[in-house]
Amino acid sequence: MDKVQPIIIASNKNWIEGEAIRQLEITANLNGMKRAVGLPDLHPGKGIPIGAAYLSEGIIYPHLVGNDIGCGMSLWQTDLKKSKFKLDKCVKKLTGFEEVWSGDSEKILETYSLPKTLWPMALGTIGSGNHFAELQCVDTVFNENLLQESGLQKNKITLLVHSGSRGLGQSILEAHISKFGGKGLNIDTPEFTQYIHKHNQAITWAEANRFVIAQRFVKTLKTEGTRLLEVCHNSVTPHQNKGWLHRKGASPTDKGLVIVPGSRGTYSYVVKPRTENADISLSSLAHGAGRKWKRSDAKARLFKKHSVSALTRTALGGRVICEDKALIYEEAPEAYKDINIIIADMQDAGLIDIIATLRPLITYKTRRK
User: Fold this and answer.
1) Is 287 a catalytic residue?
2) What angle do CA 312, 316, 322 make, to 5 degrees?
3) Which CATH number, 3.40.50.2300, 1.10.10.60, 1.10.260.40, 3.90.1860.10, labels domain 7-366?
4) What is the pTM of this model?
5) Which secondary-structure segment (H or E) carries 231?
6) Going residue by residue through the chain (369 aa), what tens digit of pLDDT does each one get?
7) Spacing of C-alpha 271 from chain mean position
8) Domain coordinates of the chain in residue numbers?
9) Dihedrals φ, ψ of 162, to 5°?
10) Half-sphere exposure of 185 toward its Cβ, with a 13 Å CA cutoff?
11) CA pair distance 106, 118, nearest whole angstrom
12) What is the greatest pairwise CA distance in the chain?
């Protein structure tokens, strides 16, 4: 079998850790792999890199999708006017999202054609790690025509929800690993069919979860919202009759507009994928800035520089709701790469057109339970 040489889309200004490259090269040469692409946000994960896409033939690898199947982002346009938005008042209002949602979970699951008993207690919760819900506003417009097509309104507040399939995806991966370890599944086996069925359910559940989170937020703020985009960045799907496309921390280019967030202290970018160049990146884009530091290193690096209180305010004037003292350091803006370089690398590769930047106002991680 010929060795697969992965492609990494990154400029000299972009720092890609050697361990991430090593992990990409190893996974690129799993049995059945045809192509592998590292995106500008490529960084090391637990054995496999994050910010990568892989095309395989005849076999899939559930561990490349990971435990948070269906993790992604949805962007909502709310009716809240920017001119009347009271930052501190909203911070006080936003609470209780760690608690079990009091709404009709069975109805939501049924609406999404999911079993009524499929992880209902977690529905509508954000989760831990890098997941969040963030109120934002349009800052800089790069393409006025595309902005109007997007549905974004310059005078109103947006809501970005980043979450996944919670414990459901974890249970699916654990079941696979307990039986097969890191081995793949041949596509002509019953085990493949069973995994894909559960995988697809987890993707749908994650979308439903983001929907409920958004509804909880707009209800708390006594407003309404319209979903503008929905992006999944952890999945394995058929790809142009060429094989199976694994995305681990990679957004698709064939599902409409994409949002690429930086960190809670930097801008998010709304972009339009340029489909004529999609094959370069296996129809995938960076899903964010990508981590610069390991979680275990972030607190050690920042503990003496910043108090917890200081980290609840950002350089852009935003607020951070995170009452988990370890997490607030782990997710500090300094722990992430420069989002401007990530975007520039994709733009230089001919993969995107930039529509606008969104400035973070309130980033919700977690209150104390």
Assistant:
1) yes
2) 20
3) 3.90.1860.10
4) 0.96
5) strand 225-232
6) 578 999 999 999 999 999 999 999 999 999 999 999 999 999 999 999 999 999 999 999 999 999 999 999 999 999 999 999 999 999 999 998 988 999 999 999 999 999 999 999 999 999 988 999 999 999 999 999 999 999 999 999 999 999 999 999 999 999 999 999 999 999 999 999 999 999 999 999 999 999 999 999 999 999 999 999 999 999 999 999 899 999 999 999 999 999 999 999 999 999 999 999 999 999 999 999 999 988 888 888 888 888 999 999 999 999 999 999 999 999 998 999 999 999 999 999 999 999 999 999 999 999 975
7) 15
8) 7-366
9) -120, 105
10) 23
11) 9
12) 62
* In the block, residue with structure tokens 């696979």: 176
Extract the tokens encoding 61.
Answer: 């690898």
Report the C-alpha gap between 69 and 168 in whole angstroms. 8
List 63, 233, 287, 306, catalytic entry: 287
Tokens of 45: 């994960």
* Structure tokens given for 225: 């919202």
